[in-house]
Design brief:
The chain is of the alpha/beta class. Helix content is 44%, strand content 20%. It has 2 domains: 139 residues, Rossmann fold; 166 residues, L-2-Hydroxyisocaproate Dehydrogenase, Chain A, domain 2 (Alpha-Beta Complex). The chain is built from 11 helices and 14 strands. Helix 1 crosses helix 9, helix 3 packs parallel to helix 4 and helix 5 packs antiparallel against helix 7.
Length: 316
């Protein structure tokens, strides 16, 4: 009989997937990690390389290159596979291409007998998370997208850097689409329980106009990183490990993930980035922030943009 251990199945060992596997091993979050990818040799090499670092890891992790049958006993399947956007290609083109890829992936995972939780990281993440939910037939609570977890981390880092405070003491959220229509929830942003507006008014070196630039740097961070190194992967890998830990350790942590709205925030039938309580069962509940009129309008716009782009997926 198989021992009761935590198993994570990783689909896709490109930049994001391999960075996630490396971070997962370094933090000792799971007992088993299976790597699944069309590029067998690369993934076998990743498994070998990671195993050679085992003597330096905080705890034992069994790592191997496998196939979709290994998803049967997985507690969590993390999808990092998919096509990247090419020059001259629209987001709609990317949606249709990756939706077809995901159909094949999810069908094979479900055929294994998988009955755990999906965590989706591939972009456009909100739309592809919806597609995984549709294809898998699993309850909406057990299909989660990385959403705006990285955007929120960038937001907190830049605010902490600006106010000279440890980023872990900054409480602020980016919600909406993981993309150009995301928005900062300034009305609920604080440091140590003190609102950002009060921090601004407390000292002359802090200026209101700087806050808009901070948000723009958050929203456009991926573009700046891609210009310099071709892709972003370390930050999102750390975010995926944080989500994995929250799930496997039943933390009931509040994280900004792509979750299914069923009347929440006044919207239905869409996956989008919002704060949610995450535990061993997936999303326990969505945290509904009281948005001001400007924030609500921007969030509504983000939903509308997402729904327009995802029309082909919603017809499936």
């Amino acid at each position: 009989m198989r021992e009761t251990v935590n198993r994570v199945a990783l689909i896709g060992t490109g930049f994001v997937g391999s960075s996630y596997a490396f971070a997962l091993l370094n933090q000792g979050v799971t007992e088993e990690l299976v790597l699944i990818d069309l590029n067998k040799e690369k993934s076998e090499g990743d498994a070998m390389d990671l195993n050679h670092g085992m003597p330096f890891a905080p705890s034992q992790t069994k790592i191997w290159f496998g196939d979709y049958a290994d998803c049967k006993d997985a507690d969590l399947v993390v999808i990092c596979a998919g096509a990247n956007q090419k020059p001259g290609e629209t987001r709609l083109d990317l949606v249709e291409k990756n939706t077809k890829i995901f159909k094949g992936i999810v069908d094979q995972i479900m055929a294994s007998g998988f009955d755990g939780i999906f965590l989706v990281a591939t972009n456009p993440v909100d739309i592809l998370t919806y597609a995984v939910w549709k294809f898998s037939g699993l309850p909406k609570e057990r299909v989660i997208g990385s959403g705006t977890i990285l955007d929120t981390a960038r937001f907190r880092f830049l605010l902490g850097d600006y106010f000279h405070v440890d980023t872990r003491n900054v409480h602020a959220y980016i919600i909406g689409e993981h993309g150009d229509t995301e928005l900062p929830v300034w009305s609920h942003a604080d440091i140590a329980g003190r609102s950002i507006s009060k921090w601004i008014s407390s000292k002359e070196q802090f200026k209101q106009e700087d806050l808009e630039q901070i948000f723009l740097n958050v929203r456009d961070a991926a573009y700046h990183i891609i210009e310099r190194k071709g892709a972003t992967y370390y930050g999102i890998a750390m975010g995926l490990v944080r989500l994995t830990k929250a799930i496997l350790q039943n933390e009931n942590s509040v994280l900004t993930v792509s979750a299914y709205l069923d009347g929440d925030y006044g919207h239905n039938d869409v996956y989008i980035g919002v704060p949610a309580i995450v535990n061993r069962n997936g999303i326990r509940q969505i945290v509904q922030l009281e948005l001001n009129e400007e924030e609500k309008s921007k969030f509504d716009h983000s939903v509308e943009v997402l729904k327009k782009i995802m029309e082909p997926v919603m017809k499936l």
